[in-house]
Amino acid sequence: MRTSEINRNTAETQISLKLNMDGRGESAVHTGCGFLDHMLTLFARHGRFDLTVSCQGDTDVDYHHTVEDIGIVLGSAFSEALADMRGICRFGDIILPMDETLMICAVDISGRDYLGLQVEMPCEKVGDFDTELVKEFFLGFVRKAQVTLHFKQLAGENTHHIIEAMFKAFGRAMAKAVKIDEEYKDEIPSTKGVL
């Protein structure tokens, strides 16, 4: 079973995260930031990843450290659970509609970190959540997971829907990329023989 459990403690955050990549989309997420809880729940459900996250962070300052550090820990969990990445499909993509929003997400589990973000946020905040933190979350994730991740917004004017479409699409694209390809289950999906 492809699972991981990561605990990360710093002066700013104390995070405990459990991931089962071959789950049913069940989640229990308590980050201290309601909007992030909702987004991670959507990610888990649409990726069919079982995800448990608990975070105590310096949210009395703002959500920056909490959001970035959870991205880091989630990326670490995927990296650990994938091990040598034998048999995975490696690539995943989706075009996802969310009401007036249309989002493309594509991922390559390449061993190289890169975030391509062609997304415009009409508002600086959704409730008390700073929308600039979405980028910080995904930067933390790609750096630790060592994946290439692209988002391209084709349409959308509602900031909440744009971010929600990103997290749903992220779950769906990651699910495709980490899926075991039965025909190649004993192979590393690279001409180099390593990712």
Automatic annotation (TrEMBL):
Keywords for the protein's UniProt record, in alphabetical order: Amino-acid biosynthesis, Cytoplasm, Histidine biosynthesis, Lyase
Q: Name one GO biological process term.
A: L-histidine biosynthetic process
Q: Does the keyword Lyase apply?
A: yes
Classification via InterPro entries? IGPD_sf, ImidazoleglycerolP_deHydtase, ImidazoleglycerP_deHydtase_CS, Ribosomal_Su5_D2-typ_SF
Q: Which Pfam families match?
A: IGPD (PF00475)
Query: Which pathway does this polypeptide act in?
Result: Amino-acid biosynthesis; L-histidine biosynthesis; L-histidine from 5-phospho-alpha-D-ribose 1-diphosphate: step 6/9
Q: What is its main location?
A: cytoplasm
> Where, per UniProt, does this protein localize?
Cytoplasm
For this record, an example GO cellular component is: cytoplasm
EC numbers listed for it are 4.2.1.19
From the UniProt record, which GO molecular function terms apply?
A: imidazoleglycerol-phosphate dehydratase activity
Listed under catalytic activity are: D-erythro-1-(imidazol-4-yl)glycerol 3-phosphate = 3-(imidazol-4-yl)-2-oxopropyl phosphate + H2O
| Similarity field | Belongs to the imidazoleglycerol-phosphate dehydratase family.
Query: What is the designated name of this protein?
Result: Imidazoleglycerol-phosphate dehydratase
Which organism does this sequence originate in? Anaerotruncus colihominis
Q: Which gene encodes it?
A: hisB
